Amino acid sequence: MEKIDGRKIAEEIPIIKDIQVEKEVVWVNPDKKAFVKSAKDSELAMADVEDAELRLKRFAPFIMRCFPETRDRGGIIESVLTPIPNMQGHINEKYGSELEGRLLLKQDSHLAIAGSVKARGGIYEVLKHTEDLALEHGLLSEGDSYEKLADEECRKFFQDYTVQVGSTGNLGMSIGIMSAAVGYKAIVHMSADAKQWKKDLLRSHGVTVMEYESDYSEAVKHGRELSDQNPKSYFVDDENSRNLFLGYAVAAKRLVSQLKERNVAVDAEHPMFVYIPCGVGGAPGGVTFGLKQVFQDAVHCFFVEPTQAPCMLVGMATGLNSRISVQDIGLTGLTHADGLAVGRPSGFVGGVMKTMLSGELTIQDGKLYDYMRDLLETEDIFLEPSACAAFQGPVKLNKSEELKRYVKENGLSDKMDQASHIVWATGGSLVPEKIREEYKNTYLV
Ligand SMILES: *Cc1c(COP(=O)(O)O)cnc(C)c1O
User: Fold this and answer.
1) Same structural domain, 166 and 235
2) Which residues carry the post-translational modification N6-(pyridoxal phosphate)lysine, per the record (predicted)?
3) Given the DSSP bridges, would you call strands 359-363 and 26-28 parallel, antiparallel or unpaired?
């Protein structure tokens, strides 16, 4: 790998100087293009998202059988879209945000099985691998219901196979729980940031948890090496997986009817702003990719990262993508936002986002807990701190010079009273009560 000179890069790219000293920054993507142009450059397309959506439909009877809690949605794992007007009033009052239009919360925090956005990509990837194996080995024939895959003889077959993944926590939970449900041996390689309760929960599902004292990248590296030694082991590659990415992207297709139900129009006159917390990039990248396919130029997507671990921002702003890490410019990568504690971004996602993403914001750790308490007090909804990063978007939109310019240059100034703002709540419902209490009482300076 090439040697990165952090000092030289900071001189060439001014925003890196602010990032280096842990300032909260706003970055507007200078390479964003009109959707029709960016779609042409992309290796993936709407057809791939539709293919993923159909696969999840085929698996719905299987999911319903393994996870009875998904029965009311017919085995489709989906979250609700909730208007949060009290929170909107509160941020306008407390932070002077002057946010017009409607603020809504996409509650992936409450997705079945994994309690985070990872229930989309992680579960999809395990199912895709399961379908591949089942077809290859003749477990499924034309017209079979996939429910059959939960039969004892199929489970016995899958017990010969292993699924492994490296994770800061939530991806491991989604892959681990789903893999164990299919029957696989599951091994999750957890980085130092991963919370104890997540390891305990996984072990209670029969998943093997291997712990590392190092960061996420090292956990991934060791996991991959171990998996490569076993021909019957499949490694879920969070940094490069097209399957994970497409699993996340399906969210956009499902959002269409939810917006209709809430009478939220999304078109040239009614812009939609979406704010998503970002770690390695797969989840926010996949969701954004799907949203752009569906809503095209009417949707404006922003990622939010911790000031100590803004890996996607550093990768995109320098154009170096996965060739640069936050450590290269002198940051630690350590953050209270365990789901976002990633030092090096996905190069694949950075490439796809280059012409689609509107921009990025960063947030100091202390504010994660403030926004968490704000939401709990005004709407009685609990999110984990990582997920609360997304609120930095609506709080800052009308206060940042960069974002004010973005609104103006995109011809949106007279449309903001008809805009919708979606905060993508990426996790939280599985956090144990005791840990919630700790979070509620955490104040950082
Ligand atoms: C994983 C995660 C994210 C970000 O997803 P990446 O694919 O790592 O970018 C955001 N929030 C929560 C709660 C997560 O667990």
Assistant:
1) yes
2) 118
3) antiparallel
For residue 284 and ligand 1, the question of a CB distance below 6 A is answered with yes
Distance CA 165, CA 151 (A): 25
pLDDT tens track for 67-125: 999 999 999 999 999 999 999 999 999 999 999 999 999 999 999 999 999 999 999 99
Q: Is 345 in the pocket of ligand 1 (CB under 6 A)?
A: no
Q: Is-contact 182 68, C-beta < 8 A? A: no
> What does the pLDDT read at residue 1?
61
Question: Which helix (H) or strand (E) element contains residue 90?
Answer: helix 85-95
31 near 355, Cβ under 8 Å?
yes
Q: Distance of CA 45 to CAs 94, 161, 246, 287, Å? A: 42, 31, 10, 13
In a domain, 59, yes or no: no
Domain boundary among the residues 240, 264, 292 is at 240
Atom of ligand 1 nearest to the CA of 248: 7
Q: How far apart are CA 411 and CA 46, in angstroms?
A: 27
Q: What is the pTM (predicted TM-score) of this model?
A: 0.97
CB 369 within 8 A of CB 38: no
Residue type, 371: Y
Same-domain pairing of 323 and 348:
yes
Question: Do 105 and 169 share a domain, yes or no?
Answer: no
Check whether residue 322 and residue 410 sit in a common domain.
yes
Mutate to test the pocket of ligand 1, among 117, 240, 357, 388 (most ligand atoms within 8 A of CB): 117
What is the domain count for the chain? 2
Give yes or no: residues 129 and 99 share one domain.
no
Host domain of residue 415 = 6-45+68-114+243-440
